[in-house]
Amino acid sequence: MVDFSDWIGRSVTRVDTLTERLFEKYRATMSPFLFEESDHIAPPGLHFGLAPATPETDETGPDGAELKGLFLPPISQSRRMWAGGSISTLRPLRHGALVIRTSTITDIRTKQGSNGEMCLVSIEHDIADGRGIAIVERQDLVFRDPSSERMPAVGPDQKIAADWHIEASPLLLFRFSAFTFNGHRIHYDLRHAEEEGYPDLLVHGPLQAALMFNLAAEKLGYVPQRFDYRCLAPLYGRGRFGVSWDSGSLRITRSDGVTTAEAQVHARGTG
Description:
The structure is a single chain. The protein is of the alpha+beta class. The protein has one domain: Hotdog Thioesterase (Thiol Ester Dehydrase, Chain A, Roll). The chain is built from 4 helices and 10 strands, in the order E-H-E-E-E-E-E-H-H-H-E-E-E-E. It has helices spanning 20-30, 170-180, 190-195, 205-220; strands at 11-17, 79-89, 98-113, 116-129, 132-144, 164-167, 226-231, 240-246, 249-254, 259-265. A 10-stranded antiparallel β-sheet has the order 1-3-4-5-2-7-10-9-8-6, covered by helices on one side. Helix 1 (20-30) runs antiparallel to helix 2 (170-180). The chain is globular. The mean pLDDT is 93.
């Protein structure tokens, strides 16, 4: 196992502005599944599109994502997946704010899984405006070797009880990729997704998180101070899925009844 401990603590800082165009792009992508406290306060999950990595074309790999060895360590495993994360909202971000996003690698672990060796990377994002840090987010990524086995297709459709029923259309996936400047081809390039062993395009982990985050805020009437989530199974495009709330717990359910992500909210936020 390769030791990447010297990469822990590496950080990068990027700057962005909460422009009207950013608000409009997020609303257009997420509406009507969106909690809006006011026209001047960023809805839950908008921060996913703030100050993203913007690698040059020659700084991306065959999968369309930023090359490893730039910010992330040179992990040999080629398949990358979003495992989950946590969002702490200290106060709301407002329209027009200049935002500084500092991303730091906080943990790297290698372990043996059922399909071979995996590398788990945790990144903390401190998102600050002129008044200081407003959002602290942890993102957990998993890297593993591709498998020769194809992932099974979605089973027969079931009648799913959910608060929101959403069509995972190619347009939704493309728009969220564009909003977050996510070049990972599994979300918009069907041929590449099939080459990685998937039966269809994949719905983004942060898109699922943003939907659960917005549903939680709608149910509570405010943005929760802390929102923890994890991804459990692939959610494929070109099908319907459900987003559900149950007393502080949330889940994403595929059309065949499989839970693909789950979340938990905590204390009331200060915003």
